[in-house]
Amino acid sequence: MTVFTRRTLLAGSALAILAACSGPSKFKTYDGPPVTSILVNKGARKMYMLSGNRAIKVYDIGLGTVPVGHKNFEGDGKTPEGRYFIDRRNPNSRYHLSVGVSYPNDQDRAFANGMGLAPGGDIFIHGQGPEGQILSKQRRDWTVGCIAVTDEEVEDIYAMVRDGTPIIITA
Length: 171
Prior knowledge:
- Helices cover about 30% and strands about 25% of the residues.
- By secondary structure, the chain is α+β, with helices and mostly antiparallel strands.
- The chain has a single domain (about 25-170), classed as L,D-transpeptidase catalytic domain-like (Beta Barrel).
- The model is unreliable at about 5-20 (pLDDT under 50).
């Protein structure tokens, strides 16, 4: 056996060991009905993945630390209300995985700016990650304005939802 062959076999074995140790991937596939919109009912703490007018999946959710009312400015602890879109995804989120909500819109910016404040941003549907696993045991609504689900649930959501999907967040 040549040195090249031995090195190739060793490298291949090392890669196989690393792959086995890394555990299951957080990136799933989805082949069900398309998610055409998302409905969040803050009062009921429910998020509905809709295909047309049919709920194909329902999740219990956590919200911002001040869950009642529309997000008006950065740091108010509120989750926005209104019509937005999924506009980005973060595979390296500190909350496991996350999909971005297009807050703030023009109306949100105008309102906050009229008060001399910043509207904030970085609103996501996300998992818990290590920090959220601790905080969610202390209180249901623990985010700074995001919509939280479990890590396993956000893996499904990340696979199901496409950028551009409308999200309607109601009181």
